[in-house]
Amino acid sequence: MNEYHKLCGSDEWRAVVRDSILPWALGDMDLGDDVLEVGPGYGATTDVLGKLVPKLTAVEIDPDLAAMLMDRFAGNGSVSIVRGDATALAFPDERFSGAASFTMLHHVPTAALQDRLFAEIGRVLRSGGVFVVGDSLASSELEAHHESDTYNPIDPETLVVRLEASGLAEVEVKTNPFGWTARAKKR
């Protein structure tokens, strides 16, 4: 584990997620009562979302991270951790009231797989359900932290078209010097 990945699991990062990233991304948006989180990684957003919504299901593809999260949230009846692939979700159509994904899409190796993930989110969201997603802007510094890992950042200027192709509408994209966030609704 490199220093970057240690930071992702730290209390310091949880505070950044709680105090800066999620408030900026969510604004006044209500994710509803049954929320899907895609790619929780070390669980910083899971910690925060698990306190904001009545029911949270987090899907993590990495077996070690999924096992760690299962142990950590074992006593929390409102948070479920599922080991799975977000490009082929094992949930029925229109299951969730909302979905969220933060700082993980750059780990998805191809644009086609990122689009498949977006399509799966569109499939499992209820009509009118919201999807909030965010990630870092491409940078050589962030790329250096992913030397032995997948690094495929998304250009935020492509998000409106890509999310609309996934059955989502009312797409809003915001950027700051470090990252981007997008909000959309299921048609």
- Whole-number radius of gyration? 15 Å
Q: How many beta-strand elements?
A: 7
User: How much is the average pLDDT?
Assistant: 90
What is the helix tally? Answer: 7
Structural class: alpha/beta
Overall shape: it is globular
Major β-sheet profile: 7 strands, mixed
Cα end-to-end separation = 41 Å
Low-confidence stretches: none
Report the helical percentage: 25-40%
Helix and strand pattern: HHEHEHEEHEHHEE
Strand percentage: 25-35%
| Largest sheet, spatial ordering of strands | 3-2-1-4-5-7-6
Characterization of this structure:
The protein is α/β, with parallel strands linked by helices. 36% of the residues lie in helices and 26% in strands. It is built from 7 helices and 7 strands; from the N terminus they run H-H-E-H-E-H-E-E-H-E-H-H-E-E. It has a 7-stranded mixed sheet. Helix 2 crosses helix 3 (44-52). The chain starts with a helix and ends with a strand.
Features:
seven-stranded mixed sheet; single chain; 187 residues; 7 helices
Offer a quick outline of the entry:
This protein is of the alpha/beta class and 187 residues long.
Topology:
Layout: H1 3-8, H2 11-26, E1 35-38, H3 44-52, E2 56-60, H4 63-72, E3 79-83, E4 96-102, H5 111-124, E5 125-136, H6 140-145, H7 159-164, E6 168-175, E7 179-186
Parallel strand pairs: 1-2, 1-4, 2-3, 4-5
Antiparallel strand pairs: 5-7, 6-7
Helix pairs in contact: 2-3
